Amino acid sequence: MRWLLAMIKHETNTYSPVPTPLERFFRGNPEILAGERAIKAYENTDSGLGGYIEVARREGADIVVPVAAESWPSGPASAQTHEQLCKLVLDQVKLGGFDAILLDLHGAMVAEGVEDAEGDLLRRLREIDPKTPVAVTLDMHANVYDDIVDNATVISGFHTYPHVDIREAGVRAANVIVRTLKGEIHPVMSWANKPMLPHIMCQGTHAAPNKPLQERCKELEANGVLAASVFVGFPHADIREAGLSAVVCTDGKPDEARQYRDELLERAWAGRADWVFHPEPLAPTIARAKTIEQGPVVLLDHFDNTGSGGTMDTTAVLAEVLRQELDNVVFYAICDPQAATEAAAAGVGATVTLKLGGKLAMPAIKEASEPLEVTGRVKLVFDGVYLSRGPMYRGVRNDTGLTVVIDTGRVEIVVVSRHQEPFDINCLLSAGIDPLQKRYVVLKSRVHWRAGFSDMATEVIECTGVGVTTSDYSQLDFKHVRRPIYPLDPL
Prior knowledge:
Blueprint: E1 2-9, H1 35-42, H2 48-59, E2 62-64, E3 68-70, H3 79-95, E4 100-105, H4 117-128, E5 134-138, H5 146-150, E6 154-157, H6 166-181, E7 187-193, H7 210-222, E8 227-231, E9 245-251, H8 254-270, H9 282-290, E10 297-301, H10 316-323, E11 329-335, H11 337-346, E12 351-356, E13 372-382, E14 385-387, E15 397-399, E16 403-407, E17 411-416, H12 426-429, E18 440-443, H13 449-453, E19 459-463
Parallel strand pairs: 1-2, 1-3, 1-4, 4-5, 5-6, 10-18, 10-19, 11-17, 11-18
Antiparallel strand pairs: 7-9, 8-9, 12-13, 13-16, 14-15, 16-17
Helix pairs in contact: 2-6, 3-4, 7-8
């Protein structure tokens, strides 16, 4: 038995100025991972590809991995990048001889001229091989299109945000393929969407409205449904089908799939007002944080979350933290390779004055960020490589490039050279910082921070900063999403 396993993952923020060349998918490696290097990197990790490998090993399948490529969210991929990634998969499919094809995709990837990159890959794959069973895992933030569903045997989504069940989604999809190959089941799927763009800050599965929806999906799967997924969508992709959708896969029961699909969608729609986030002004939120004595207090610079395509170099929240003189603070992080290089050249122990961040223009939004002049001591310089402790992406290698810590006396600022959302405590421990000893932990994150930091947070303060991951839809010029759609339109 021979299985093709492949991973191509990118969440595209069409408002982001951060480019997406092929090299962005290297993730600190000298090239795209493939073959045994890919298997070694992802086997026994909490990833979709890790779940596929686990089931393939269990079933005694020979594994072929033509590509394992994942990029931090950014702007649309270049047409060349999309074509190169697709070619790695399609050229292998053309060789034939596979009993199963298992794809670990995102579902919100946009390329130049292609707003449904995953659907484009799957459609072209089926033109080559219309018969081999195809499993697909999708991120909870997938923007689902017909071409994705029509060309897959089974689609399996995550049930958690932060995404701490990615491996389980891969295992679930792979198990459906195993049972299909044995003739035990005959998967059928049904999908639809609702005209709504849920705010990402309202999508966490620690609470309603998303928690009960995902619990219902798990309940359905525990009672015979092969896979039930509510995709909350990625609203910062200005494309036609952006928004909330549901996909249900059953064993030869299309009416049942439609029934459960509609139930999930109606539940989400009935509570649509709960999916709307209302930002508060920055200065009062920082002032409120200053009154909290017991730390660590987590402050979220969520308008500039690199995990949603932010530049990771806006400085509004950091500037306000410094202006209001919060003390015993760690700030993670500013992505500024130039500043990191300057600090590293000065050396550990040196006092430096740097102009941090504010280097990337953001023409898509109505605000800009300026470089922030900061003086401090270089506390640490290191290569930025660490493994995720978990529960999210446990065992996966992270690489922030040349990384330095600047200590201003009140604030320890982590400056990185590659984008990285702080979802794992090792992003700080690897930099010599124990967040438990801090009164304030400022993170450029929206929801994923909960995976590594929620258990220690005494309070959570959501800070309205500046950035292309803005939680204020009025700052975004929506041109391509289908209309009317809630909450952009009164529905």
